[in-house]
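Priority: low. Protein: GtrA-like protein domain-containing protein. Input follows.
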Amino acid sequence: MNFIYSRSNILRGLLIYASGDTVATLLQNQFSFSRMLGMMVLGATIYAFEIPNYFRWLDGKLVKTYTFKNSLQRTLLSLAYFSPLWITRHLFFIKLFSGNFQEITWDLFRIATISFVVNLPVSLTANYLIQNKVPYRHRFMASALFSAVMAVYFALAANWFK
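Result:
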């Protein structure tokens, strides 16, 4: 399998993930350049590589016809990827880039799990649309935009669910 790591995904990841997180920090009066730069690097590297390749694997794994069963599988496999573990890792990076090392504990998983469950109806809908209605070549961007919106939610939820 050839992996995807394109200039356009790098740029999209850099801009979109950092933008969503920056809005979250501004809403909380917690803006920091180190966090913004960290999110830019994260979006341009790990996320720009990992997410398009997962979507590509998912696209190749499932039949390309959009039956109800296939659409449901795409949605659930997407949710399995963007699970409480993924959210925990994202929150870990936020704490790391913010310099809040003392807040990097196993409690991040509890916070991520609560956030995931509370947000499940929205995530189900968004992931269904991304996986079944958005053309493959635009899925990373659509997912990144949804993630940018969710970055605001997760940043706020980290405080709500402490």
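The first helix runs from residue 7 to 27. Residues 7-160 form one domain.
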